[in-house]
Amino acid sequence: MLMRLLYLVIFMVVIDLINHFGLKAMLKRIKDSYFYKYNIIAYWSVAFLMAIVLLISLLITGYPQLDYEKYRFYFYLFAFWLVFYLPRFVFSFFVVLQTIYYLLKNIRSRKGSYTVRRNIKRSYVVQKAGLTVGFLTFLIVIYGILIGKSDFKVTQIEIELAELPAAFDGFRIAQFSDAHLGSFSDTKIAEKGFQILQNQKPDMIVFTGDMVNNIADEIEPYFVALSKLEAPYGKFSILGNHDMSDYVKWKNFDLKREYLLKLIRYQERCGFQVLENENILIRKGDAEIALIGVNNWGLPPFKPYGDLHKAMSGVENSAVKILLSHDPSHWKEQVLAKTDIDLTLSGHTHGAQMGIILPFFKWSPVQYIYTYWHGLYHINNQHLYVNPGFGYIGFPGRIGMRPEITIFTLKKKYE
């Protein structure tokens, strides 16, 4: 932990030094004024105060272990740091660009000439643009923290399936994913999302993993809200990578297993049937479709707890198969073209909680890690939907990547 703190301090000092020289260059014409003096003093005072607050807070808090409120506190420390240092980082980028520009311009103006020239008048327009962009970044981060994380949206998706029994034509499935309930400091935010979900009146509700950050206790404030979620054909959930409690330093395996079983009991208490590498047949009259659920399956560094072969046992002849698998990597590695699963519902990526989603364009930094990271994908007759998540982790906010409840309407495809 001390080494991480050291790296953080070094990063902060480097950014502040770059910005210091950038500000000095911009303000050198008024360097004898009080505005110049107090501007520089104010900059370093804020930087010093932030470093002290962060270091003291981190050292006092220590490793959260099973205290999910401490874990949440780290998220807000990160937000505090990000509010001030992301804009500074942005400005430092523009300072470096401006410096390189004038350096190249100076070299070019002197090359092949021995004439003494007057100093080139510098406008520092790039750095001024950097100040504007930095300020906008500050506002965007604040928006993501105060508003973005609770700006729930409902996405309606129609899925056409050729083998869908006629009885299930129009069947509506509500998906939410990555609740990370321990991250919410105000329970009303999550409860607002649950109410929006319930207002959709789906036939079935599925949750695709990461109900908590680390431990089952995070569910306790939401027993009532989760229990109020109702659907005539049931509520089903699977375990994500955070549900598996791999991010806690457990004293022994038995204690880890105890908390995992507690998490499952808590979800069952709220009316969810947890599918652990198993399946269930959803019946409507004489017709049926298979719902398959696996424990988290991921590529390294995530552990492959899921057993798809076991989960599909007994439903090989079902006309329609729907898979709940937390990590969308699973679809590419074990589902696509290797099984006859019609629809896979995933989450996990959060859309990085930051991105741009437009009807004709979408982007997020997470797309450089995951091939399938947001929305609907289909290859031949197999479909994958990646939900961007209900909650948040790490950064306590969302920027351009709204928390989502997805409603799927199954439609029979007629040739």
Q: Encode the helix/strand succession as letters.
A: HHHHEEHEHEHEEEHEHEEEEEE
Gyration radius from CA atoms, angstroms:
26 Å
Poorly predicted parts? none
Beta-strand portion reads: 15-25%
Distance between the termini: 60 Å
Q: CATH-wise, what's the superfamily of the largest domain?
A: Metallo-dependent phosphatases
- Reported by name, the CATH topology of the largest domain is Purple Acid Phosphatase, chain A, domain 2
- Class computed from helices, strands and strand pairing: alpha/beta
What is the CATH level 1 assignment of the largest domain?
Answer: Alpha Beta
The helix content is 25-40%
Nearest-integer average pLDDT: 92
| Assembly category | single chain
Give the overall form: elongated
Tell me the count of domains: 2
Question: Which architecture name of the largest domain does CATH use?
Answer: 4-Layer Sandwich
Main pleated-sheet profile: 6 strands, mixed
What is the strand arrangement across the widest sheet?
1-14-2-3-4-5
Count of separate DSSP helical elements:
9
Number of DSSP-assigned strands: 14
List the helices and strands and how they pair.
Layout: H1 2-27, H2 34-61, H3 68-110, H4 125-146, E1 153-161, E2 172-176, H5 187-199, E3 204-207, H6 223-227, E4 235-237, H7 253-269, E5 272-274, E6 278-284, E7 287-293, H8 308-311, E8 321-324, H9 329-335, E9 343-346, E10 356-358, E11 361-363, E12 375-379, E13 382-386, E14 404-412
Parallel strand pairs: 1-14, 2-3, 3-4, 4-5, 7-8, 8-9, 9-13
Antiparallel strand pairs: 2-14, 6-7, 10-11, 12-13
